[in-house]
Amino acid sequence: MDLLEYQGKQLFKKHGVPVPEGRPAKTVEEAVAAAEALGYPVVIKAQVLIGGRGKAGGIKLAKARGEAEAHAKAILGMDIRGFTVHELYVEQASEIDEEYYAAILLDRTAKKPLAMLSRMGGMDVEEIAAKDPTAIVRLHVDPLIGFQGFHGRRLAYEAGIAADVVKPVVALLSRLYETFVEEDALLVEVNPLLVTKSREVVALDAKVTIDGNSLHRHPETAAMRNPAAEDPQEQMARERGLTYVKLDGNIGILGNGAGLVMSTLDVVAQAGGSPANFLDAGGGSKAEAIVDAVEVILSNPKVTAVLFNIFGGITRCDEVARGLVTAFGQIDVKVPFVVRLDGTNDEEGRKILADASLPNVHVEKTMLGAARKVVELAG
Ligand code: GDP
Ligand code: MN
To answer: Is residue 7 part of a domain?
Structure first.
């Protein structure tokens, strides 16, 4: 579960990671009241679950009441890369001297937390890493030993952190690691990690992802979920109990079984297509479940074709086919669908689909054939 910046900063504060003073606001009036209480200058920041707010005009400095009001008005409701701004964070403005980058994330391959530090913060990490991979220093932390002073000092020296702020940077990293472990985070990222004109080190931004499986241990964090700020498709899918992950492409994908769906994504990519989502409909053949899933897939306006990849194991293909026919009766089939049906009773299943002669529905026997067909139809 991703947290908004100010929620991440609440966790930072709890664990002693220094952050500027700030207050969240949902209306222009609340934002102005927050600015008045904090004292000018303040920064008005869009709270959306996506980065690059600065570049998109979602972060503005206000030196007086009128400016705070105008910026709050302009930013609320703004669209930032597909996310509507419903909330603001009003923060005491900081004077920037240097912008660093710090992060701790779970490295699944190494099965260890990975700490990262760079002197080149403030812009996209991907950009920094692409230009100069050595600009970001990485160090794995043995979870049984935890984050020690030597980890922090090694990161700081290798990253070339200015000598006068090594101590506070190391202290901040250690607090950040505590946040990561105690809050069951998968990622805590600070970009920029700010060195102010008075050489104080503070977290100016916060990107925190909490392991969703740990939320039963953190009721306060669980209550921070932001349905309004989440991706609309992912929100809709969660409400319907579907396992859905949005991707960048235009081909909607539905399959039964996580492994099958993952290989479907690979095969579609191999056929030259770009999947719009991961969606595992699970076992069973219920028409309602299929309708539910298709509605989620089609609510993504980028989708121009859909691939159903169904393997009949315990669930027989003829049952699935009957479910599909019922489902297609209830769906407004605006984009072409390709259905690949294989496994137990697949011939009967394909015959049921063929006999139903559904408009805009193409039946294929093999996974690769279906992938090629859907890529062709998606355009
Ligand atoms: P992001 O663009 O979504 O990553 O949002 P950030 O919170 O990282 O802000 C982007 C940029 O806005 C930072 O790198 C800073 O350069 C600038 N910024 C944010 N807060 C302040 C502030 O308090 N004072 C000043 N001068 N600049 C700020
Ligand atoms: Mn940032």
So the answer is: no
